[in-house]
């Protein structure tokens, strides 16, 4: 990889299936490095699965040397126990990335879908199909958790390459008006 290439690790946290995807970004061009899942035995103890997440995250970080990690925020479900377990899985992934010195960004599922497809209510298949166009790959993964993770990485790339990303609409307008006082109508 070229020296000006930035690698982004995307994570779709899960306690049974954790998706991960890595992209390399040079300038504004992103290419896929890898996407896959860590599939864990649901009969294993929850703490053992958390240890597997930690171990796989360490492997990915040491193998690919990403600059940052983007992770999907958990959605709010009705099952409190499932949400607690998912939060723990996400926490392990975040702590592992931070321990390795990576910056971490978190995106809601709706934000990721909006960023990739233009529709915050897109389904997994629509996200996968759009990623195929954006990153130019033909592979169809066995689990769409892998493409969800890839989508989080691409979403992060889009957010970083957008100069207005992270600026609220009001601050964006305030800044615009400060830079262009001649555009303000006086009463």
From TrEMBL:
Residue sites binding Mg(2+) 2 per the record: 72
Catalytic activity: Endonucleolytic cleavage at a junction such as a reciprocal single-stranded crossover between two homologous DNA duplexes (Holliday junction)
Residues annotated as catalytic: 12, 72, 145
One of the GO biological process terms: DNA repair
Keywords: Cytoplasm, DNA damage, DNA recombination, DNA repair, DNA-binding, Endonuclease, Hydrolase, Magnesium, Metal-binding, Nuclease
PROSITE patterns: RUVC
Location of the protein in the cell: Cytoplasm
InterPro entries from the UniProt entry: RNaseH-like_sf, RNaseH_sf, X-over_junc_endoDNase_Mg_BS, X-over_junc_endoDNase_RuvC
A GO molecular-function descriptor: crossover junction DNA endonuclease activity
The keyword Cytoplasm appears for this protein: yes
Enzyme Commission number, as recorded: 3.1.21.10
Note on how the cofactor is bound: Binds 2 Mg(2+) ion per subunit.
GO cellular component terms attached to this protein's record: cytoplasm; Holliday junction resolvase complex
CDD domains: RuvC
Cofactor: Mg(2+)
Superkingdom of origin: Bacteria
Binding site for Mg(2+) 1: 12, 145
Self-association and partners: Homodimer which binds Holliday junction (HJ) DNA. The HJ becomes 2-fold symmetrical on binding to RuvC with unstacked arms; it has a different conformation from HJ DNA in complex with RuvA. In the full resolvosome a probable DNA-RuvA(4)-RuvB(12)-RuvC(2) complex forms which resolves the HJ.
Family: Belongs to the RuvC family.
Protein function: The RuvA-RuvB-RuvC complex processes Holliday junction (HJ) DNA during genetic recombination and DNA repair. Endonuclease that resolves HJ intermediates. Cleaves cruciform DNA by making single-stranded nicks across the HJ at symmetrical positions within the homologous arms, yielding a 5'-phosphate and a 3'-hydroxyl group; requires a central core of homology in the junction. The consensus cleavage sequence is 5'-(A/T)TT(C/G)-3'. Cleavage occurs on the 3'-side of the TT dinucleotide at the point of strand exchange.
Record protein name field: Crossover junction endodeoxyribonuclease RuvC
Lineage of the organism: Bacteria, Pseudomonadati, Bacteroidota, Chitinophagia, Chitinophagales
